[in-house]
Write a structure and sequence with these properties.
6-stranded mixed beta sheet, Cytochrome p450, globular, alpha+beta, 16 helices
């Protein structure tokens, strides 16, 4: 075990623009230091190795929440301030932040919308929409790949699944961005205030949508959650609202960032991009490699519900573990030459979609969306080129770009 007293003089500093630009050398330093390291600025235990992250994601002594077993006080934690309550009510009733049996009860009806057969039926819609978005980008001679393709595709798909009318979709992304700000390390009061406001507005909107679907059910997922006939799967209204927000946020945030992170990685590795342009059959392995190479979700947190031991260090109940997905995906013990982008990489057990009971329910859909946009861009914009170096978002946990300006010839 090693202790990290603070960011000064340490390569791992999640608030340093240089670290955010390229965190992967700092991860190598962490892996060399040990298997678990206490980081004082966030009071978290950092876990940087792939084998440990993979095992801990499946370890039931850890939880996304502790409130199914302990009060805040019993767990040695300070309750969130009352003014943050709308965010926490929304967040704490979604299945990502619940443990069994509530997690199981909510995930069961939602999973029916993400079966391989259901997702496969969405393929034509996803491919047609990707083609339309790329055609518009080409007709304009270029634009912002994030704004014009990466963002509207997954937002439209998940909104379509949820049954959110097209006229209402423009407000979804700003709400999502404000809510997701709270998942960063030590968020500011300004970030919290934006998240609270977005939580209230998004919840009010969905409450009205649920009321409409109760009167006039459709074929959408919200109607399906309302109609869950198995008593054990019945969701409260708050659980339906929280589930819809989670699906919207998780259903596009990672895909948007994987798209722009991936294309920026390709532009910086021209020999790999040339190989992909020459052989579109590489798309499936390219998607997996790009998600590994520059991971959209860099960190995932768990609470220690019962004492655990990692490499001889006891992590006590009440502590918080930060599993470093970006580091795990660059662990040379698992990936040969991990700093090299290799679109033909076959042995690629990356953990970008997590693992265990919280494995990303939308992973099959995300892969279809990423493949559709990549294929459309390769087919219709074969000379796609960046016009400027993009700016990174000032975030660590959710890794992405502010935009990606491109020209098509």
């Amino acid at each position: 075990m090693s202790g990290l007293s603070g960011p000064s003089g340490l390569a791992f500093d999640p608030w340093d623009p240089a670290f955010l630009a390229d965190p992967y050398p700092a991860y190598a330093e962490l892996r060399a230091r040990g298997r678990v390291l206490h980081y004082e600025p966030t009071d978290q235990w950092l876990v940087p190795h792939h084998a440990d992250v993979s095992a801990l994601l499946r370890d039931r002594r850890l939880g996304r929440t502790y409130q199914h077993r302990f009060t805040h006080e019993d767990f040695g934690r300070t309750p969130p301030p009352p003014e943050h309550e709308p965010f926490h009510v929304l967040n704490d009733h979604g299945m990502l932040d619940l443990e069994p049996p509530d997690h199981t009860r909510i995930r069961r009806p939602v999973s029916k919308a993400f079966t391989p057969r259901t997702v496969e039926r969405l393929k034509p819609y996803v491919h047609d929409l990707a083609g339309e978005l790329v055609a518009a980008l080409v007709a304009a001679g270029g634009g912002d790949l994030l704004r014009d393709v990466a963002e509207p595709l997954p937002v439209a798909v998940i909104a379509e699944m949820l049954g959110i009318p097209e006229s209402d979709r423009a407000q979804l992304r700003p709400w999502s961005a404000d809510i997701c700000g709270m998942y960063e390390l030590n968020p500011s009061e300004d970030t919290a205030a934006k998240a609270v406001r977005a939580s209230v507005e998004f919840s009010d909107y969905l409450r009205e949508l649920i009321a409409e679907r109760r009167k006039e059910p459709g074929e959408d997922l919200v109607s399906g959650l309302i109609a869950a006939h198995d008593e054990g799967d019945r969701l409260t209204e708050q659980e339906m609202i929280s589930t819809a927000v989670l699906l919207l946020n998780a259903g596009h945030e990672a895909t948007v960032n994987a798209t722009v992170n991936g294309w920026w990685a390709l532009f910086r590795n021209p020999e790999q991009l040339a190989a992909l342009r020459a052989d579109h059959s590489l798309i499936p392995t390219a998607i997996e490699e790009l998600m590994r190479y520059d991971t959209p979700l860099q960190l995932f947190e768990r609470w220690v519900l019962d004492d655990i031991e990692i490499a001889g260090t006891t992590i006590p109940r009440g502590a918080e573990i930060a599993m470093l997905f970006g580091s795990a995906n660059h662990d040379p013990a698992v990936f040969t030459d991990p700093g090299h982008l290799d679109l033909t990489r076959r042995d690629n057990p990356h953990i970008s979609f997590s693992a265990g009971i919280h494995y990303c329910i939308g992973a099959p859909l995300a892969r279809i969306e990423l493949a559709a946009s990549m294929a459309a861009l390769l087919d219709r914009a074969p000379t796609l080129t960046p016009t400027t170096e993009p700016r990174r978002k000032p975030n660590f946990v959710i890794r992405g770009l502010e935009g990606l300006n491109v020209t098509v010839g």
